[in-house]
Amino acid sequence: MSSRCHDCVGVALALGLAVAMAALTASCEREERDTKAPPESQISVSSVALSPLQPGEASAPPGGSHRSIEENAFNLAQGKQLYTWFNCSGCHAHGGGDIGPALMDDQWLYGSEIENVYATIVQGRPNGMPSFRNRIPDQQVWQIAAYVRSMSGLTPATASPSRSDEMQNKPAEQSMPRQEPKDTHP
Amino acid sequence: MRRLSGSGVVVALVLLGGCQGVQSALDPAGDQAGGIAGLFWLFLGVLGAIYLLVLVLLVGALLGLRQRAATERRLTGLLTAWAGGTTIIILGLTAFSYGTDARITRLGDDAELTIEVTAKQFWWQVKYVEPQPSRSFETANEVYLPVGVPVRFILKSQDVIHSFWIPNLHGKTDLIPGRVNETSITARRAGVYRGQCAEFCGFQHAHMALDAVAVPAPEFEAWRESRLKPAPTPTPEDQLRSEGLQVFLTSPCVMCHTIRGTSASSRVGPDLTHVAGRRTIAAGALPYSRGNLGGWIVNPQSIKPGSQMPDIQLEPDQLQALLAYLDSLT
How does pLDDT run across B286-329, given as a tens digit for each residue? Predict the structure, then answer.
């Protein structure tokens, strides 16, 4: 009788261990790297509002679905690489701004939501910002837009890039204190 | 017995047959690889002979062939001779190894040609460097080498550590970000050899190959002259290719690629000035053909997932025009 009970305890222990192991390994799942453009990310630029103010009842603010792009470390790292390759740094430097506005502060002339940044890159803006329509594939524009938001600490620190290839004169995106955008809280 | 030795010869031939090929360190086609292969055969011969000797002695001991009782003095003498022989052989092999290494290193001293190779995820940027800038030019994923001429390679990396390895011509040299490494190659036998990144560098490490083409010196000069020329502008009568050029200049292509002779001059991706003259596309992932190029342009992320070439959305007419233009860039 006692030996049978011994067996019960052993089996229960083994089962408990197996469950614990399964729970632990489930959390080891790697972040998905989507190297193909997700078709559902297509939005028309004309649907992006430049102002949060609307007459009548406010419709849903821009954002929501596209926020998931910037929760992915791969997308932010790609955006960071493309930011240099496509010469964004030529005007905006590495965030501090030069002949283009700074991107690491809390000022957003054309909106701080990722859709706003996307529209700014695709449409261009007066006084110098070129339009990259048909020049940068959609998925890459989203990646760059997400990275631009990470420069002022608006993306999750768990996904933001932690180091730069060039000399660092500011905290890495990951440790950048969040600059609460001024435009959305007038 | 005869049948046994016959099959032994066949097995040896089959094994040695595996040493031939476009990517084999045991089929040397240059001075450096020759030195290394010589070392390999020397080590294999000496160490193989010792291994056989040990086996023979072991079998002898197991069968009890030697019945005489060994004296203490005899044993001491044998052990001393064995230890002495081992020391001499190890020192000898070390000397050969150092000697070969020093000789191979000096082979690059009188290099007449300099090629700068920059490794990127996942392709090779190749620049033929001349003191006169107008004589310098860039290509990708291929190196042409004149037979019998020592060539210096300057090795750099843009992103992570890669390794430059053309087994038929030389051993590996790492390409390290922020550092400049050098190696040299003197090809002795004309032919096409395959180079391969030999340091795991990410998603498409296996598809990071390099064609090394060794040709006689006059042929090399002709190749170099042809590569120095910019891409010809399509004549206005050639509507399809003119449209193709326009597609290239107004689509995402222009963000990353250079075609000398046009306004496309970005240096993110491979220089495409003579893309149709290359043996492969996408760093050896596909042999060059118009069809493969079309597949690569619209769907690179299925052929080489994780490469930096994005899927490009083009209308079928645009794609055909673009292909007609790119295919004319020989």
Answer: 999 999 999 999 999 999 998 999 988 899 999 999 999 999 99
Contact B262, B250 (CB under 8 A): no
List Cβ neighbours of B314 (8 Å cut-off, separation of 6 or more).
B247, B251, B297, B298, B322
A135:B310 CB<8 A: no
Q: How does DSSP classify residue B205? A: G
* CATH superfamily, with its number, for domain B239-327: Cupredoxins -  blue copper proteins (2.60.40.420)
- Continuous segment of H or E residues that includes residue B142: strand B142-146
Is-contact B37 B26, C-beta < 8 A? yes
Q: Which residue of B has its CA nearest to A140?
A: B310
Count how many Cα atoms sit within 13 Å of the Cα of residue A159 in the half-sphere of its side chain. Answer: 25
Task: Render pLDDT for B29-75 as a digit per residue (tens, 0 to 9).
Answer: 999 999 999 999 999 999 999 999 999 989 988 887 766 666 778 88
pTM: 0.85
Rounded-to-integer distance, Cα A155 and Cα B12, Å: 62
How many other CB atoms are there within 10 angstroms of residue A30's CB atom? 5
- CB-CB: which of A33, A134, A137 is closest to B310? A137
Nearest to B41 by CA among B17, B25, B22: B25
A72 touches B: beta carbon within 8 Å: no
Closest chain B residue to A79, measured at CA: B308
Q: Does residue B158 contact residue B116 with C-beta atoms inside 8 Å?
A: no
A42 touches B: beta carbon within 8 Å: no
CATH class of A67-186: mainly alpha
Task: Give how far the C-alpha of residue B255 lies from the chain's centroid of Cα atoms, to the nearest Å.
Answer: 29
**Cβ–Cβ below 8 Å for A136 and B250:** no
Kindly report the CATH class assigned to B20-228: mainly beta
Name chain A contacts of B301, Cβ cutoff 8 Å: 35-36
* Whole-number CA gyration radius for chain A: 23
